[in-house]
Each structure stands twice: as structure tokens, then as C-alpha cells.
Specification:
12 strands, 45% strand, mainly beta, four-stranded mixed beta sheet
Amino acid sequence: VVVTRTFTFSDDSGNESMATQLVTIVDTLAPEFDEASLPVGETLYCEEVMPTCADYDVLAFDTCCETEVTCEEDVEETACPGTYTLFLNYTATDENGNAAYHTTTYSVVDTVGPVLDSLLLPNDTIINCEVASIDLTPTLDSAAFGAVDGCNGWTFAVETVVEGEAESPCDYTRFDIYTFTDCDGNVTEFTHVLAV
């Protein structure tokens, strides 16, 4: 906006002179966000509903002119599928091109290990050494546990520990330890006990 001021000077003889002053009013300040309307970042489990730009009515104000607020979503992946960092990037722009920026950050994580189907888990087993050899009882395949992970894949390992066989070949215990580990390092372990 330009304001023109014209000054006229006259003496008693009717002589006049004039001066003109131009005042230019500019807007160099960016809008300010209404802090109360901005979303607050947090840590979310991967199976929760993720926030979007449309979920929030973010406001910004400018003392000179109208302001428009826009939002863009951005994702930064991690090494593990299903976990990432989510950014809601807000820009408030006034009619003179001045802009303010705000980013809300959400960490999407996996804190839960693979879940085993409790209906499929084997019960502790007693084997009569006079009837069958425990060595003929194989460990179970991963499919036997119905394991699922809500965020990403998992790996499977089996460890067998035998206690007491050296002292009593017909009175000892075998522990089959099944370990499921997801990409984020969360572990679920199940131990199948076989007693002879």
C-alpha cells in the first residue's frame, strides 16, 4: 500500500510551493500459528490409526492480511517394514508471500513381539522311556504355532536343552525352546517341556 501526502505552503502574497511525501506500507512478517490448534507429536504403535492432515484444523493469523494454511504428509521409512517416522508439514502463507512453517513428528514403532496362537501351543509332554525314545520326538516347525506379527515379519529359532539324562537315562527332561523375533528385535519365546 502506498500513501501519498501532499503539503502546500503559501505566503501572504499568494505564492505557493508544494511537497509530496510517499509512504509505502509493507508486510515483511510471516503469519503466526495458533499453537493451540497445532497437533502434538507422539509415539504410536504400528497398528494404531495414523493421523493425517485432514484430522486437524490448524489456524494461523497475520496482522496485515489474510492467511492460508496448507499441509503435506511425509514418511521416512526405517529398516523394518511397518515402522517409520511420519511428518505433518504445515505452511502458513499470507497474501504478501510471507510464510511460516511447522512440522509435527510421529514415531511409528513396533514394541510387541510375534503373537502365538494359544490354541495351537503344545502341552507339556510325558514320554515313557520303555515305550518310546524321546529322540524320536522331533521339534516343531514354526507353522505349528500360528505366529503373527502386526507390524513386520519374524525369524524362528529352536534350541533344545536336556537336563538330567546323564544321571538318569529314564528320568530326565528335555526343553524345546522356540524363539520368534521380529524385525524390530521384539522376542516371543515358548518352551515345550518333554519329561521322560
